Amino acid sequence: MTPEMSTRLGLDGKIVLLTGGAGIYGRGLSHDLAAAGAITIVASRNLKACESVAEAIRAKGLQAEALSYDQAAPTSIERLRDDVLAKWGRLDGLVNNTVSRPMLGPDGSIAGWEESMKTNATGVFVMHRIFGGMMRERGGGSIVNISSIQGVVGPTLSLYAGTDMKGPPPDYFFHKAGLINLTRYFAAHLGPSGVRVNALVPGGFQAGEPEQFVHNYSEQTFLRRLAKDDDLGGAVIFLLSDASRYITGSQLPVDGGYTSH
User: Fold this and answer.
1) How far is the CA of 177 from the CAs of 96, 109, 154, 221, in angstroms?
2) How far is the C-alpha of 206 from the C-alpha of 227, rounded, in Å?
3) Residue 104: CA count within 13 A, CB half-sphere
4) What is the CA radius of gyration of the chain?
5) Which strand ranges, in their side-by-side order, compose the sheet holding 93-96?
6) pTM for this one?
7) Candidate CATH numbers 3.40.50.300, 3.40.50.720, 3.40.980.10, 3.50.30.60; the one for domain 3-254
8) Per residue, what are the HEC states of the chain?
9) Which candidate, 176, 187, 229, places its Cα nearest to that of 204?
């Protein structure tokens, strides 16, 4: 690989904010972003958990900081922006990974649905408006939205056969699908200012599920397995890097072939 291509594929010196940075996807993504050279800002409501992730990254000689915010509160998002500007003066990349899961199934309460939308719909919109606005003023940047296969296909209920799992609730399908079209919307609005917006569409993730579910799900993928915690980082790094500088408004499946049936 030439030095020029190596630079385009890396994130050296870029300031990248990863929300939900201590969660199931976030832990692996945090380490991968830092390993690619980014100054990684690990953010969520749980500052202690984010500090733990950031400390583990710094122990490797890489750069990471932890910040707290509540995506359900627009004023908290504004404070997060102010904290980022005060410490780094800019933002090069944003990975919208925060998700709230208050509903347990289709019979969940309407209050649970409404609570979900505060974070997963209104909150993620505010993230685009505030941090996308920062990037627009600066004349460049990249936003990567973590959607899901459940934003592009309906539920396959047979995956849960033989388990006590109930499957993902309806709010998750609703907001993950909406996130994909919100990606296109902001790609159109921010593109003229040099800001790119893309969506990642991950599949099932190995996180202690029952053996029967792992078997059922694996049978539905071309690669015959769920994702591991180091399977998403490469795609996110690519979309944040200059190697994808002519890609915006896209949705990139990282699902082992699940949605290609």
Assistant:
1) 14, 21, 10, 21
2) 6
3) 5
4) 18
5) 64-68, 39-44, 15-19, 93-96, 141-146, 195-202, 251-254
6) 0.96
7) 3.40.50.720
8) CCHHHHHHHCCCCCEEEEECCCCHHHHHHHHHHHHCCCEEEEEECCHHHHHHHHHHHHCCCCCEEEEECCCCCHHHHHHHHHHHHHHHCCCCEEEECCCCCCCCCCCCCHHHHHHHHHHHHHHHHHHHHHHHHHHHHHCCEEEEEECCHHHCCCCCHHHHCCCCCCCCCHHHHHHHHHHHHHHHHHHHHHHHHCEEEEEEEECCECCCCCHHHHHHHHCCCCCCCCECCCCCHHHHHHHHCHHHCCCCCCEEEECCCHHHC
9) 229
Structure tokens at 159: 């995956």
| CA proximity to 132, closest of 173, 168, 96 | 96
Cβ–Cβ < 8 Å for 204, 224: no
d(CA 261, CA 251): 17
Mean pLDDT, consecutive 10-residue segments, the chain of 261 residues?
73 97 91 98 97 98 98 98 98 97 90 96 98 97 97 93 89 97 98 98 92 95 94 97 98 96 80
Measured distance CA(125)–CA(71) in Å, rounded: 10
Residue 17's pLDDT is what?
A: 98
| Amino acid, res. 206 | Q
Kindly list the distances between the CA atom of residue 245 and the CA atoms of 12, 106, 124, 239, in Å, as whole numbers in the listed order: 16, 40, 23, 8
